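[audit] Reproducing an earlier prediction to check determinism. Same input, same settings, fresh worker. If the tokens differ from the archived copy the diff job will pick it up downstream; this log only records the rerun itself.
[audit] input (318 residues):
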Amino acid sequence: MKEFQLIENFFSGRGPLRRDVLLGIGDDCAVVQPAANKSLAISVDTLVEGVHFFPNMPADALGYKALAVNLSDLASMGAEPSWFTLALTLPQADELWLRRFSEGLLEAADYYGIALIGGDTTRGPKSITITVNGQLPEGKALTRRGAKAGDWIYVTGTLGDSALGLQLLQGKQQARPEHREFLIGRHYRPTPRVLAGQCLRGLASSAIDLSDGLMSDIAHVLKASGVGAVIKVENLPLSQAMRDTVSAELALSLALTGGEDYELLFTVPEAQKGALETSLSQSGVKFVRIGQVCAGSQLKLLRDGEPFTPEFLGFEHF
């Protein structure tokens, strides 16, 4: 199959239609029309076979996840997804794989209302690079820089499920069938908290999505904001599947360091706590307070008032 036939068969003219896309796939560039008084949020992410996903990962799950992890970056900024591009590198044009990959990719695109507007295909080791573009009101972007001593620290959803799902796929753990399905699903199909991120605009003093593990990611917020934090690990939200499958020690370690949760971690001043409850209730996402920002630069983990050390550290690319 030739390159342009591949694009025509599996990607061109598919996905949600947006009136702000003036020219999409099929020309040298896409042309879009951002809304008035909006800022653009742009993020890019690459998934490489053997590094970020197993060679036998289902193609539809890979397509879905490739877009979802990028949408999580938009969520952490409080942005509304608008457009994305796809650079796809494949050793060969496998039609069945491409059909399933594009179905998963465009399923996520349809659900979150983001349009595929272009990209590139080439031959080589399998990798997927996606660039997402989102819009948000001027001056309302959530960043890592605004946390202040006294702010409360929250997370959405439950933590560690994706990492445990990965361990199940690796044969390192065993789980009941219903728990196995849930945990592997959390690894294959993360849920970017797009609406929750938008609800946090004007309320959260800082935010980040949890991709490399809570400890690694909160460290970015603390460094950017010039503060420290105390986390009460007994408050970390754990799913019933997690609690039923592994020990409490391992569950807490996975929640702190496992990575690929794609939940939001955010800080909120005391004065905004009431408004937070009202605003986030509109998103339908559960959230829980896990600690507090403090002066200094250290991250302290406490379990029932005593220092806690997890079993392993989070993911690093190099």
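[audit] rerun output stored. Observation attached for the diff report: Confidence is low (pLDDT under 50) at residues 314-318.
[audit] end
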